[in-house]
Amino acid sequence: MSKIFIIAEAGVNHNGDIETAKKLVDVAAAAGADAVKFQTFRAEKLVCKNAQKAAYQMETTDAAESQFEMLKKLELTPQMHEELMAYCRQKGIRFLSTPFDVDSLHDLVERGIELIKLPSGEITNYPLLREAARSGKKIILSTGMSTLDEVRNAVDVLKGSGGTDITALHCNTEYPTPYADVNLAAMGTIRDEIGVPVGYSDHTTGIEIPIAAAALGAVVIEKHFTLDRNMEGPDHKASLEPDELAEMVRAVRHIELAIGSGRKEPSQSEKKNMNIARKSIVAGCDIKAGESFTEENVTAKRPGTGLSPMLWNQVIGQKAKRDFAADEMIEL
Question: What are phi and psi of 241, to 5 degrees?
Fold first, then answer.
């Protein structure tokens, strides 16, 4: 099977500081993630100056601060982008960043980004969807807050604008997401109804749900992480800490191996156990030559190196051609 693509979502957990951002890259690389993802936006193009913050943002940041003021402090400058992309190359991990406006998308494409990750809030942003598809890049689309028809419409826009490699991530945008609202089964619905590969972008606490998503066939797993959940900022509280991220990656890799080919057959590692664990038809007591094999004088016991008990009905009623001692394997 194909390798599950794991995105360690740093998001805005750098708090606008390049050194913190580099430490996040270190953590993602050490955990074994395939990519570390940030966010690229210009606050002036993303949000109106009087827009309200989300409820979880009100709880995790200064309630008197506007969404615009909060986001302005979390922008990555062009220089920071260059530094982070170079640092990711040095650390051997792919740099990704989510664009929230068309200009930011173009900036990322010009910087040579290979994959475009579109966030849930932009699933109805036709101009951004169109420009993402026109870029010719692979696209991963989060689908939080959306109906199946909205996912279908967004995918149609992407395909109609030239997009050919599209993956949709099931997602819930509440931070943290209540377990009862995860609805992991919707991931399969998107795959079956829309006809695109699917993955899962997680905002629950802990690592159980992304692991379950991997077992259910996700080809991409995305998860927020931070250096410390006690840091100031909107997303830290719903993020994994470094050791948790590493444990999630290990678990997903184990699930990835465990899913296998789907063919039901003995594995290479267990073939040696077949003769030990299976049984053969053996004499249940001493049997003399000429006696008939009956339900009373034969039985099934380990090891499985003789006649399979599945041949039971072919053995019962036949006559012994020689003497058999108790526990001796029956031969026909």
Answer: -90, 165
CB 20 within 8 A of CB 38: no
Distances 231 to 23, 55, 112, 238 between C-alpha atoms, Å: 14, 18, 32, 11
Distance CA(46)–CA(300), nearest Å, equals 73
Which residue, 37, 178, 193, is CA-closest to 116? 37
* Tokens coding 178: 């209540």
* pLDDT string in tens for the chain (332-residue length): 469 999 999 999 999 999 999 999 999 999 999 999 999 998 898 899 888 867 777 777 777 778 888 888 889 999 999 999 999 999 999 999 999 999 999 999 999 999 999 999 999 999 999 999 999 999 999 999 999 999 999 999 999 999 999 999 999 999 999 999 999 999 999 999 999 999 999 999 999 999 999 999 999 999 999 999 999 888 888 899 999 999 999 999 999 999 999 999 999 999 999 999 999 999 999 999 999 999 999 999 999 999 999 999 999 999 999 999 999 999 98
Q: In whole angstroms, give the CA distance from residue 269 to residue 310.
A: 24
Residue of 6, 11, 3 lying closest to 93 (CA atoms): 6
Note whether 257 and 215 are within 8 A (CB).
no
DSSP state of 131: H
Q: Mapping DSSP to helix (H, G, I), strand (E, B) and coil, where does residue 120 land?
A: helix
pTM, full prediction: 0.88
Apex 115 CA angle, 110 and 117, nearest 5: 105
List of E strands, 209-303: 220-224, 280-283, 298-301
Taking a C-beta distance cutoff of 8 angstroms, is the pair 67, 240 a contact?
Answer: no
Contacts of 205 (CB under 8 A, 6+ apart): 176, 238
